[in-house]
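> run fold Protein kinase domain-containing protein
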Amino acid sequence: MANKFDETPLDKATKRLANILKDRAVQLGQDLQKIPFKDRSWLGYKTRSRDALLSRHTGIDIDQLSLTTHIANTHSGEVWRGQWQKNDIVAKILSLRECTVRNSRDFQEEFPRLRIFNHPNILPVLACCNQPPNLVVISQFMPYGSLFNVLHGETGIVVDQNQALRFAIDIARGMEFLHTMEPAIPNLILTSKHVMIDEDLTARINMGDYKFSFHERGKLYAPAWMSPEALQRRPEDINLKAADMWSFAVLLWELETREVPHAELSPMETGMKIAMEGLRLSLPPGISSHMARLVKICSNEEPGKRPKFDMIIPILEKLKQK
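> ok
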């Protein structure tokens, strides 16, 4: 973490000591990304022994996994619960028509960037199995599942206004951190299905839901959370950070209403109507005026006029204090 002069301990150390510290950090799976002085998302950082222990591992043999319970079949792959190194894990076996040598190589190149162990609101990928035809992504098991499951399933968790704001703040802090990364991590659509809820009700953005560059190209599965421009144009032709802010506005709406966005439509109908017919979420009566205003600001039709996450975190924190 940098001081107000944008210096880190590595900058202040001698060259020899800095190199030793860097090598040690890499061995322990630490991210060397500099956290700017203004970034306060590290406050309340919790040391997670499970993550710390498993962060040393990268590629592993699939025989080391004990997969016991089939959780779901998704568009991206089969999801299993199991154990690895005596830890509860979730393994996603990617669905591929054919696992080529190039797929395996790209998987190996892209996977390390998903091992983000230095932020409490990011759920890192712990390890991978790169054994064609099997490409497997391994994450820590989250007892309550996704935010979507908590809001719309039967977990028994009461999500009152305060808890909804805590979830929103967690997600905003995680996204703020991801937006500081260079180069940016593409292909991660922000939806309530891609936010996991830990045992202490911390919301964590799931890096295991990253869409690999070779996987399901050109297919969209969560249009209800996507911005109009993301549905109309290619990713390289839009402001991805602004598109993420639109997705966050949909999450705020979801947290306020406890409803599934555009639940009455199929995904294809939803995407077409948002992109071509101007379909938008309506704010129901009873929603707080402050939250209604924030949703509107974050979903401004002009991407360049949407705020950044470091601008809305203080607003959410003020709302939580009221």
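DSSP finds eleven helices and eight strands in the chain.
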